[in-house]
Amino acid sequence: MKMVDVGAKPKTERVAVATGLLRMQAETRERILAGKMEKGDVLAAARLAGIMAAKRTPDFIPLCHPIALSGVEVTLQPVVEGLTVRVTVRTVDRTGVEMEALTAACAAALTVYDMCKSSDRGMVLDAVQLEHKSGGRSGTWEREPVKKTTASSRTARKRSGR
C-alpha cells in the first residue's frame, strides 16, 4: 500500500456531490421536521456532523490525502421514504474531494439515526453514492438519472471538460 504522490499535479478547482437516503417511519420524519425530537434540532446537528466529517476524512480513511476544503454544503430534505442527504464539497487542490463528500453524507445520516433511534430503530441508511465530480485530469463525471420505466440500477457516464 502507498499514498499516491500528487505533488506534481496542478492545483485545480474540484467539486464532488454525494447523496444518501435515510429511510424511516413517516412519524419519525414528521417529528424531526417539527423539531420534536428529545435530543434537539436533528437537521442542524446532521449538517454540522457532515461538515465536520468532511474536514476529518483523512483521519479515518486510510491513504486519503488531507485537503484544504474551500466549502462544504450539507442539505437534508424530506421525502416520502424519510430524508435525503446531499453534500457538495469544494477545493482548489491536487486531488479530488469525492471521499470527503461521501464521508460527510454518511456522517450526516448517522447523526440523524443517533438522534432518532429511541423512536425508530428500524431506520436504514441507503443509496450513499457519488452523483458528480469535476476537476482534475479526469474531468467531469455525473451519475445518469434512473430511467422511470425500469428498475435497473443507475449507470454512470464520464464527460470531459464541463
Cross-sheet strand order for the largest sheet: 2-3-1-4-5-6
Percentage of residues in DSSP E strands:
25-35%
* N→C terminal distance: 33 Å
Structural class: alpha+beta
The gyration radius over C-alpha positions equals 17 Å
Oligomer: single chain
Binned, the helix content reads: 25-40%
Mean pLDDT: 92
Largest sheet: 6 strands, antiparallel
Outline = elongated
- The number of helical elements comes to 3
> What string gives the helices and strands in order?
EHHEEHEEE
Total beta-strand segments: 6
Low-confidence stretches: 151-155
Short description:
The protein has 162 residues and is of the alpha+beta class.
What does this structure look like?
The protein is 29% helix and 33% strand. The protein is built from 3 helices and 6 strands; from the N terminus they run βααββαβββ. The chain has a 6-stranded antiparallel β-sheet with strand order 2-3-1-4-5-6. Helix 2 packs across helix 3.
Helix and strand topology:
Layout: E1 12-23, H1 26-34, H2 42-60, E2 69-79, E3 82-93, H3 98-116, E4 124-134, E5 140-143, E6 156-159
List keywords for this structure.
162 residues; alpha+beta; six-stranded antiparallel beta sheet; 3 helices; 6 strands
